[in-house]
Amino acid sequence: MDQSTSNQPLPDDVYVFPASFGQQRLWFLNELEPDSSFYNIPLVARIKGALKHDVLRLVVNEIVARHEALRTTFASENGELVQHVAPVADVPLNDRRRSPTLW
Questions:
Q1: Residues of 38-67 as b/e, b for ≥16 C-beta within 10 angstroms?
Q2: What is the mean pLDDT of each run of 10 residues along the chain (103 residues)?
Q3: Can you tell me whether residue 18 is helix, strand or coil?
Q4: Domains of the chain and CATH, by start
Q5: How far apart are CA 72 and CA 87, in angstroms?
């Protein structure tokens, strides 16, 4: 969840905001137990029929464009937790049918 502050400048189209109290709390808990999956909610869906990869790519990109939380990372700047909201960008999807292993 946390990304260390680097000396590299951020692109002009990345917005930086202070983290909310709730975000600070989750970050703190993640610092205490780094690889915990406590706040993850697993979900599996079986899709029957032919998958239209171009439609899936469009849908995923639209969801990411609408929800800044999916484009947000966290960093510590001057001892304060901040959120970096990245600009809308194309989300790459890997076609696992061509992969020797599924995962």
A1: eeeeeeeeeeeeeeeeeeeeeeeeeebeee
A2: 50 84 90 85 86 91 95 91 92 74 56
A3: strand
A4: 2-36+47-91 (3.30.559.10)
A5: 9
